[in-house]
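Input record (one chain):
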Amino acid sequence: MRAEAGPRLGRVRWKRFALIMVPSAVVAAALIGLTAEGAIGANISVSGQEYTVTANQLSGSGFEQFGTTVKSGDKQIPVAESAIRSAKLTNLCQAVKVGSVTLLLRAGRSSGNPVSASNLIVDASSLSGDASFRNIAIGQDAGTLNQVPGTTGTPGSFGEQADTITINHLVQHTWLTTAGTFTLPGLSLGISTNGGSCP
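The corresponding structure, as predicted from the sequence alone:
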């Protein structure tokens, strides 16, 4: 009687492995680029490449903004740093150019299920939209800002802060984003080879 062969061990189907691992690695890389634990560390060096972030609406409690720089290689790039203690974003889209393709990340598109973040910090070169603030102080010493714990600018430099912020039709060109927590309901990730972009 012939013994029944057991499962074959030690063989890897490399094509199947690649099909599983490559998308997982891309998602992981995108999320690492989008979020980090806590506030921006002084030793973070940015990639040297901006990316675009859009949202139908950003609303937040506890807002600060001041000028600073981010490090890219041996260069210091001037940016406007915005910090929000608690933020929600509807219809978030992030577009990152990677060689000849564009990586598109989307989340928070279903009604009542926005993206949420705590201690959100964004270093951007430009920002546009329709903004409104409550209890805003413009021209405050950046070293005395107190809306987001642990986040202040250079003492004596220009800063501003507000109790709340709302920006409709947000378009932002960003070097670096970090957050204490970042929740992305309905996350989807796609790769466009024909110059895709966020709306």
